Queue: 3 jobs
Job 1
Amino acid sequence: MRYISTRGQAPAESFCDILLGGLAPDGGLYLPETYPRITTEELARWRGLSYAGLAFEVLSRFITDIPAADLKALVDKTYTAATYCHARPGRAAADITPLTTLEPGLHLLELSNGPTLAFKDMAMQLLGNLFEYVLDKRGETINILGATSGDTGSAAEYAMRGKHGVRVFMLSPEGKMSAFQRAQMYSLQDDNIFNIAVRGMFDDAQDIVKAVSNDAAFKAQYKIGAVNSINWARVAAQIVYYFKGYFEATKSNDEQVAFSVPSGNFGNICAGHIARQMGLPIACLVLATNENDVLDEFFRSGVYRPRKTAETHVTSSPSMDISKASNFERFVFDLVGRDPAVVRELWQQVDGGGAFDLTGTSHWARLPDFHFASGRSTHTDRLATIRVVWEKYGVMIDTHTADGVKVALEHREAGVPMVVLETAQAVKFAETIREALGREPLCPADLEGLEKLPQRVQVMDADVAAVKDFVVHHC
Ligand SMILES: *Cc1c(COP(=O)(O)O)cnc(C)c1O
């Protein structure tokens, strides 16, 4: 399997060659040359597999430059009950992503039972093992530099801790994350993990990462890399749980399901789109946004208009507070019939600070073939949904999952099970849970008291030179 750029002006590459990088050299995103189609026989056989077994089947269609036995070992080491141990009481951790039924035909697929209690662990844990494997093979090292507002940074650190050849330098805005998120990151004592709290906002931290990455000489000398949301391996790893969710929510492969996906950067739901292209019987992919409704606007109107930073709302589902959806270009590439010239033209407008409008085009006419629906949710909706799900079903959901449930309920169809992807656990967003329910969130027993552990973090000004200096002295 080779990977091509959505902009069509970069050479095709193998999986391992794009693993450690980000954008393609032409500014596009990598996608498989073609999507592997799953036969009826394969789908029948996959129904009985464990999560790790299924992950191997799915990923071996996309990763053809790692010997099968090695890939099998990597996947088996990643998807264990010991790592994904934070299942709800009564659910089996060995399932990795257990399904909780709220009522007949309405389910939650638990994707947040990993070390950091958010779905990003599903892909990031695999990425950690893949990075270590490929770096070892090549005798190389990497220094991952990133900025986080919460979920991504902690998922990356828990995936990379203790891995040879990898160091993580993670910038976070001082005092802006929840107490639980801070404790998760800053309590790590591993020698290869460095937390840097920047005096400023998330955007200041992000700007520093960009400035360092734009310094080509520094980047090359200090082997600076990233694990951002456009990384293809992350998308690929996420495809697996759509298959798992489908098998859990149906009795036979004649049935169809709908998935509702809380969305920010279009990474999670992009994996659902690819699962559907592979032949998984998905009736509908329901995209749920918060007040930052760039994507809902597109699916309703055909207009894609990324927002300015100043137009981006700070919400109570903060991991979806995005101004532009960095993985969206992958879907648009498919929507426009995989014509890179069209993608280049559209993103010329977007990258120049503008928007594009597909209404009236043949591309827009094809949208129904992709079976998407969308909706948005606000803080008031979030509070109401958290309350209803708690009172009616006795299940506590986090703010992002609440956005998914709210929009899912607007798109249910008779006879089609609706599976809402649970993207985080409530305890990560305790403040909103208190506001909605007037009580403390549930917390997995082994993470209770996390806030009291000693923390290791370097506080510094939002200064590029200071961050570079820190990296140089810790390499
Ligand atoms: C990252 C994240 C999302 C958004 O996922 P995308 O892949 O960016 O669409 C939703 N919920 C939670 C809890 C997250 O951490």
Job 2
Amino acid sequence: MATRDNLTLTISLFFLCFSLNTHLSHGADTISANQTLSGDQTIVSAGGNFELGFYNPGNSSSYYICMWYKKVSTRTVAWVANRDSPISDKYSSVLMIRDGNLVLLNTQNQISIWSTNHTHPSPISVIAVLGDDGNLVLKEGFNSIEPIWQSFDYPSHTWLPGSKIAYNKRTNTHQRLTSWKNIEDPSTGLFSLNLDANNSQYLIMWNGSEQYWTSGPWNGQIFSLVPEMRANYIYNFSYVDNENESYFMYYLYNPSIISRFIMDVSGQVKQLTWLENTKEWNLFWSQPRQQCEVYAFCGAFGTCNQIIQPFCNCLRGFSPKSMADWNLSDYSGGCARTNLFQCENPMASNKDSDRFWEYPNMRLPEHPQSVAVNSATECKSSCLSNCSCTAYAYDSDNCSVWFGELVNLQQLGGNDGSGSTLYLRLAASEFSSAKSNKEIVIGAVVGSAVVLLVLVVIVIWTRQRRLVGSMKPVEGSLIAFGYRDLQTATKNFSEKLGGGGFGSVFKGTLPDSTVVAVKKLESINQGEKQFRTEVSTIGTIQHVNLVRLRGFCSEGNKKLLVYDYMQNGSLDSHLFQEKDGKVLDWKIRYQIALGTARGLAYLHEKCRDCIIHCDIKPENILLDVELCSKVADFGLAKLIGREFSRVLTTMRGTRGYLAPEWISGVAITAKADVYSYGMMLFELISGRRNSEQSEDGKVKFFPTWAASVVVEGGNLISLLDYRLGENADAEELRRIARVACWCIQDDENNRPTMGQVVQILEGVLEVNPPPLPQSLQIFIDNHEHIVFFTESSSSQSSQPQSNSRSTDSSQAKSTASTSNKS
Ligand SMILES: *[C@@H]1O[C@H](CO)[C@@H](O)[C@H](O)[C@H]1NC(C)=O
Ligand SMILES: *[C@@H]1O[C@H](CO)[C@@H](O)[C@H](O)[C@H]1NC(C)=O
Ligand SMILES: *[C@@H]1O[C@H](CO)[C@@H](O)[C@H](O)[C@H]1NC(C)=O
Ligand SMILES: *[C@@H]1O[C@H](CO)[C@@H](O)[C@H](O)[C@H]1NC(C)=O
Ligand SMILES: *[C@@H]1O[C@H](CO)[C@@H](O)[C@H](O)[C@H]1NC(C)=O
Ligand SMILES: *[C@@H]1O[C@H](CO)[C@@H](O)[C@H](O)[C@H]1NC(C)=O
Ligand SMILES: *[C@@H]1O[C@H](CO)[C@@H](O)[C@H](O)[C@H]1NC(C)=O
Ligand SMILES: *[C@@H]1O[C@H](CO)[C@@H](O)[C@H](O)[C@H]1NC(C)=O
Ligand SMILES: *[C@@H]1O[C@H](CO)[C@@H](O)[C@H](O)[C@H]1NC(C)=O
Ligand SMILES: *[C@@H]1O[C@H](CO)[C@@H](O)[C@H](O)[C@H]1NC(C)=O
């Protein structure tokens, strides 16, 4: 391969093609002056992390010089050299050093397709070396340190550890991440991640102009709006601002973890980590959280829907401009009208003028124009009178009209009522003709017949079950019960299962013999409508680790909720009291921790509106017949909207599990649940209440001692419930103890999200040693009567001295009667 002579090259390539179909590699990490790279040849970095060669992503026929992760089995490209100038034949192209530059040449006509393009005074002995960090460096000889050119300065869509996202103050230029055009085309896409040096934050821009997301400023630890991107976990983030440039950079604490940060074709930044055992990229977090928050994701005349797949659809009367692009998840081309407007059609008769299709509950398109009118009718005719007007909206005396393309539309779901109605202009021919009207009539007749039939069946079924007409399904699958039915089912509320912050719970049996738990709510002063709305929202939340709501009763001030019955009761009864000499073994405890985390992660992250539980404690973790954990009582404290940080006015929750921010009175976020969960993990480990009063009246606070053992790397077995006789998986104990400590950090930004807790407990994420939560220390300093648990006291004590076995959360006498003094 030491020649540039065409003939020799052709012969050797011919030879290559027939003798070696498989991977041929230089076996080196360097391209030097006398070497070229062509066809299937590659170079591999010294430690085998990265490989560089020709590659066609997806099934495209275009080839690119790509760098990919050598150790990742599904080929994942990290960098592309010639992203905007593909080649069609990898055998007639070579990558080589020419005049001190790395150049991609077409061997037929010697034309340069791509070049590193730098001007260097002495182009002698320049070599290109692929580093183990994924940096392709051009330098003068092996011993030179200063690179002449490096791929880190020209990132494509992946931000590798050690490279920068930067703003150069001298040249006024950005070094940014840019998405691919689609999943198999690495050419420059519409979305880019930029540095806003003025505010030390990131921005995501659409087409270099429209900013639709910001990370919030960097405070040295986190970005204010992306707490998950904290430095503590696996990254070491740093921000540098000097007279020449500003930039962010990060390193992985553990360089053997393969983690990448990308600007995805979805318009979201994503952090993914490679999992060798499952052979897939695991999504760690992505921003913006919702696909429809990405500006103009569905293109012109497309509408985004967060709830149904695919996210993008064309408006009525429109179809995708390029189906091929849509098939590759590139919706940016948008939609085109299938019929001309009547006003654009010279053949149209007057009486068939354009009409408007009503789209209720929409996020309105960008760039409206206001028109001063007095009524909806005037608004409509003002749009109709100009042929380039494509839509209007009329809301509270405001008339908005749009000319030309409609972008950034979103169909809002459900009943959140924040949307507006858009009137889309369409040719009259798009509206149903006489024939389809008839179809609608027929449809309606058939439809009502079916409804009638269903009603009859329901009535008969209900009769058969001798439920005197008072049990009717409402929204979703919830059943509205009559008070008398529940009175009967619970034998006049005779079998009490427990009490909680919101009322007592009774066991009941429905006429079809299903056993249920009926919660009698106390002091609910919500209006009927609000109550039903909230209950039906709770009813839609279903997850294997959440207790399912089956129905409710609302008659005057009698408000009851009907849940699935959990045979094994609540966690506290297993943990703090011995049941027939049975102790929950370690495996089950771990599964309970994991299941609870999954349930909470679902509440926090996966359902439409974020729900903060506000009262996580063993009493609210129920166990089904197989001891699978289910979180109870969620959604009752308060349903809070999409903005995470809204102050809860009513303070709920149980002392001892309460995060410090409850006491300091700042806004409560989902991280308050994380704190309570962490406190509960300590109890799961030790099998006893976190705070106990000993005979001499001193209060022991277990987490203080436990955290110091974890932080100092002490013997974790000493923390374990003595009844387990040291039978616990050491690795699981280490994970759970560290997670617990992270969860109870004072600064909520340092606590993991429940999603991360799940991943850590699943073994997917590594967890670093936690710092000691400061307030635990202060706690000690301020309360002299509190003593540390000592190793001996924890392993000798016989029965836990919990003085409250009731499940009444609002009182919670024993649990940290100490914390309220601060
Ligand atoms: C290519 O050049 C390097 C020095 O630049 C030399 O060490 C190496 O032996 C040469 N390889 C071939 C195949 O000529
Ligand atoms: C490429 O094509 C093959 C068959 O033609 C198909 O099985 C495979 O899923 C395609 N891969 C991608 C990434 O589209
Ligand atoms: C290199 O410079 C040429 C001419 O100035 C330009 O056409 C080409 O796009 C540049 N290539 C790169 C990779 O910047
Ligand atoms: C940053 O500040 C400078 C001057 O203060 C201003 O000209 C520039 O537009 C600002 N950039 C951004 C992105 O706000
Ligand atoms: C992006 O911006 C450029 C000019 O700034 C414009 O020509 C192009 O049409 C825009 N792309 C889209 C998809 O709107
Ligand atoms: C974090 O990164 C900085 C450089 O950006 C480095 O000096 C420091 O040692 C790193 N810390 C750790 C713990 O890796
Ligand atoms: C900024 O650039 C100048 C000129 O290249 C250089 O001398 C100086 O050291 C740079 N400053 C920093 C902080 O890197
Ligand atoms: C897009 O995908 C659909 C279904 O997968 C297929 O029928 C259609 O032919 C595709 N269209 C194009 C242009 O690739
Ligand atoms: C329609 O509205 C556009 C945009 O405001 C304007 O430029 C155009 O002159 C209007 N056409 C008529 C016929 O009024
Ligand atoms: C009408 O629009 C203006 C400007 O867009 C806005 O400030 C005002 O609140 C709107 N009025 C109503 C009643 O929505």
Job 3
Amino acid sequence: MNTADLLAADRAHLWHPFTQMKAWCEPASEPLVLVEGEGAILRDSEGREYLDGNSSIWTNIHGHRHPKITAAIKGQLDRVAHVSFLGSSNAPAIELAEKLTALFPPRTLSRVFYSDDGSTAIEVALKMSLQYWQLIGQPKRTRFLAFDNAYHGDTAGASSLGGVGTFTSRFSAVHFPAQHVADIAALEQIETGEIAAIIIEPLVQGAAGIRLWPPGMLKELRAWCDTHGVLLICDEVLTGFGRTGRMFACQHEDVLPDFLCLAKGLTGGYLPLAATLTTECIYEAFLGEYHELKTFFYGHSYCGNPPGCAAALASLSVFEEEKTLETLQPKIALLRDLLAGLKESPHVADIRQCGFIAGIEIQRSSGEPYPWQEQAGQRVCLAARKHGLLTRPILDTLVLMPPLCTTEAQLRTAVDALQRAVTETCG
Ligand SMILES: *Cc1c(COP(=O)(O)O)cnc(C)c1O
């Protein structure tokens, strides 16, 4: 099928996520059909090339078609594609659990529960924390705390914790009991006796528009949790695997949560796989005789999926072999310099950067924000596409979060494309 046929069939049968399909189906909209990738570059069905400026929705780490990761997946497929994790185990899942837990000090986050994506990694943490409190005789702890503007996924439990009303309020009637707070100071007002856990996106709230937490905040939150006996869930679905410049965001502040949720970049961004890491203390509360019904009755068909685990193992070995985190540091500094150049534009209201994650918030040259209905951010990103940069905004914040393998030259091209797109669109 050529591009036109593909798009006609797409418009006839598909329903895309977070997408107003009426606009999508209008002839003026020109969705890309992506067919190939190599490193930080993606190619569409018309042969045009783009830098993958948002790492294929924040998932890709070492670039597309990395030979190590591709070979690991193919190698696994030559043995077996999927086997059950209920009642049996498999080598890649076992090895990956060993490798993941070894990234933390011994006897801290020593248990791994697999699921499929970020949302399910969160669901696991929520249900485990609820059951944990029941098992240790504090059944009244049934409520969750989350932060304003948070994003933790779209399944019912995960979206209960979301702090962006546009995404969550229609479903509030069926949500888990959750309360939102603006910041760490607001926690002082909270009655904690019924709180099971608090969840945070450490260092940076992604979907909120790349909003940074003040340095030291995570450490303060850990201390607050310890004082009040509240479990801490770190949602590192976005920040995990080097995105912030360290392997995990919580390492910047020497914090260990009670639950660590990993997904997007876990497989290098190749296959859907998630992991919820927790402590031996939580795990041990679930041990007992079968008839005591302490079992965690939870699971998904694809838990521990072997090709996913093989991809994740390969991604971790690429971190070691290519010294990914080391070579990333000068690129983070370069990104900071390049973005400082953008700041001079009257159309740029704010620039927020955390490691290799950046948000550029645009405004009218008068300094007024654009009305959200104008979709200014979206229009800038469409213009950037013509200059070879593919990304997606969050309202009027342009997101630049390319794969960690992006070269310095590609980074310059990306920021240049953004600059030109802003000038053309806003100027
Ligand atoms: C994307 C994201 C999720 C949800 O992950 P999915 O794989 O899309 O379900 C959860 N938390 C954060 C911080 C995310 O960025």
